[in-house]
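cron nightly-structures :: item 1 of 1
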Amino acid sequence: MTDDVQQQLQSQAFFNYSVVLPEMEEAEKEVLIIGNFIIENIGQETLQTPVICIRLKPAESGKLGGKIEGTSRNEMIVDASNSMEWQHLNAERKEKVKQSGEYWLKPIECDELAPGEKLFFSNFDFTLKKPAEKNSAIIEGFVYFNELRQGVEALNKVIINF
C-alpha cells in the first residue's frame, strides 16, 4: 500500500470504561468492567464492513456481555441509549470463544463508516475473576474493515491486576 493510500484509509479504536470493584465481604470476588469500544474513521475514504475482535487473556478469566444478539446482559447495566446491537461474526467463531478468548463481532445495522464517523460497541460488560495461573486479566481490541484487513489495534487496553 502506498503512503497516499495509507493516509486515505485510516481508522482508530479505543476503550472508554469503568471498573466496579466487589464488596470486600463478597465470597466470590468478581470485578465488573462496563465500557464502550469506540471506532473512528480518521482517513479520507469510506471504510466497508466493520468487524471488531475483543480478546480476553486468559480466556477463562471472564465473559463478555452487552448488546450482542443472543447474549444475556448484566442486570446492573441500564442501557437507556438507543445503541446498536451487534452479533457474532459466525457460529464457528462464537463456539471458539472459550478456548481463544476472542469475541468476533459485527454491527447488525452498519455496513460502512464514512470519514470522520464513529461507531460504538456501547455498554458492554465483562465480569472478571482472578485467573488460576496469573494475577491479571487483559482485554484487547482490534478493528477490521474490507480495506484494512490487517486490522488496527486499539489505542489502549483494559488491564486488571488481582
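cron nightly-structures :: done
The radius of gyration is 16 Å.
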